[in-house]
Amino acid sequence: MDTPFIDVSYAPWVVVVSYLIASFASYVALDLAKRVRVQDRLLSIGWWAGGSLALGTGIWSMHFVGMLAMSLPFAVGYGYVVTALSWVAAVVVSAIALYVASRNRLTTARLVGGSITMGAGICAMHYTGMAAMDMVPGIRWSTPWVLASVAVAVGASAVALLIFFWLRRQTGWAARRWELVAALVLGAGISGMHYTGMAAASFPLGSLCLSENELGGDGLGLLVSVATVVLLTMTMLTSVIDARMQSKAEVLAASLQKANTELQQLAFRDALTGLPNRLLFDDRVALAVERSVRDGTLLAVLFVDLDGFKPVNDSFGHGFGDMVLREMAQRLASVARTTDTVARVGGDEFVLLLEGGLDTTATAQIAQRVIDALTQPVTGGEHEVRLSCSIGIAMYPSDGARDQLMANADAAMYAAKRGGGTAYAFFEPHMNAGIREQIELQHDLRRALENGGELALHYQPKVGAGGSLITGVEALLRWNHPERGMVSPAVFIPVAERFGLINRLGNWVIEEGCQQMRAWMAQGLRIRVAINLSVHQLRQDDLVQRVELALQRHAVDPALLIFEITESVAMEDAEGTFKAFENLGRIGVKLSIDDFGTGYSSLSYLRRLHVSQLKIDQSFVQDLETSSDARAIVEAVVQLAHALGLSVVAEGVETAAQRDVLTALHCDELQGYLFAKAMPASMMADWAVNIGRPADLAFKESVYLN
Hints:
Elements: E1 9-10, H1 12-35, H2 41-68, E2 70-71, H3 80-101, H4 108-131, E3 135-136, E4 140-141, H5 143-167, H6 172-199, E5 201-202, E6 208-209, H7 218-268, H8 278-295, E7 299-307, H9 309-316, H10 318-335, E8 341-344, E9 349-355, H11 360-374, E10 378-380, E11 383-385, E12 388-396, H12 405-418, E13 423-426, H13 435-451, E14 455-464, E15 470-481, E16 485-487, H14 489-498, H15 502-522, E17 529-532, H16 535-538, H17 543-553, E18 561-566, H18 567-572, H19 574-586, E19 590-596, H20 603-608, E20 613-616, H21 618-622, H22 628-643, E21 647-650, H23 656-664, E22 669-670, H24 681-690, H25 697-702
Parallel strand pairs: 12-13, 15-17, 17-18, 18-19, 19-20, 20-21, 21-22
Antiparallel strand pairs: 1-2, 3-6, 4-5, 7-9, 7-12, 8-9, 10-11, 14-15, 14-22, 15-16
Helix pairs in contact: 1-2, 1-3, 1-6, 1-7, 2-3, 2-6, 2-7, 3-4, 4-5, 5-6, 9-10, 10-11, 15-17
């Protein structure tokens, strides 16, 4: 006779709640799968452990709520220990799922092994939870339904893993929508396994639950459900917050990368043309030489100088000149091969580095293509010009070591220019009779900059016209070579420019000048120091920061520092000069145009530069006594400067007659051998104190600045 069984029914709303909990847990699992894959190992382990606890509790809670949905004619309870074991099984299953989901690829072996392991864990959780009900007589199990529940568990696990990896390829809002759909599918799979397993269980009529006094009751079920939802919600919120923080971190990282890229562009690229600058070109040459030595191949450096660019720049303005330079840069880039490097190293000077399968014939052909490209007419607005170029070529290794290539190519370029231009010339030893001396000088200059002691600043005073009071000094760089003695700036400054040392030299002068001003202030002398800026320094992106730091380091008033820039340098890159002057003026440094009248500028440029001083070139001062034209020019410059609110300095004053004329023309300051030559700092202090006055404190305090 067959054993009668109890008819089991389920509360629909509780079934729905269990399904929603399973779906919610699945949604959290899908989101946690992304968190577990972070690069930080400790953070990944933390998400894996916390996620396993949250997800396992969610799955176990779904089982618990699903059991409460079942209506039986007797009180039901669950044993403490066995129920805890079922929770442990749920956490282990979740840990396995998140671990597999964190792998880079889902192989067939991982899919099969992970699905079986997870399915076994889910079944262990479910049937252990059922075993927590201490039933008398025991539950009768239907083997087909048990096997069906196992199949559902394994199948749901396989679907879960496939969805985990498929969602990695989705981005944006589409990924969020698919996550929701996938969570509902996984929730259905987890619920399906539970209720399939429940269908396998039969309770004989008259059964009793001996564990009814342990865990049980609808109140406990509600408590478990609420606690689980809260736990999953907190986990989800934590995941969302972490995702937002990671997103912000990625944005910041991208911004930092962009900023670094821009800084590298500024540091290694020419601002006008976008080509590599001298610094980057030298680095490319060094690497190319290493490859040449390793592979036994030749390389060539072509030094290209535009013929006739300056008249174009002066006649049609700097805007048109900049357009011409950009056009020439594009043409050079179009001629160069993908393995070559094109750089701009000066106002109208470019260089090409050629490597890979070269000989002199191939190099000559490329040089001729460059000439053909650059001699084509350039049209801009209403103007059309035709330029030419001169090219010097140095080959490695036949034409010298790495640090000689540029100098030798430069020497060959001048040879081509002397031959009439629109030509190229290969380097020959006789072209640079003085190049060896220049190389030796640049080595010695590097040593002088590193060791100190050989370089010094001498100061030539400026005095007020019509009086004897010092109004400031001009700092002039001197080099006392241990073997050559005093080396003229006319010799070592071009060497510094040619070999890329001019910026280091200029930075040293600024630092030394600020330090000396502080030393004089300690003696009671407040003297303005004028320092000359080169075009290379004006192009330094960090010039203003360097100056500001030097002033702060030595506690010097910015108004005591005045930078002198020659008119030709100021106009070479007018827009760049405007920007540099504006930034220097913002920190309180004064600015002066040196050699005024010898270059090309317009009143509109002069007004925009915001300078405080003009310095008349000594060539006009020397002719004041004999030339009415020179006197008229000086008078016009003084009146123009005063009309613009600028002071005027006349340099090169050597005679009393020149002084008297300049005083009569209302020139503000005078400088020249008539008053003093440039002298060391210690002598300068004595001169300032003793010039025509007693050496007392009252005079020290009367040393002033206009």
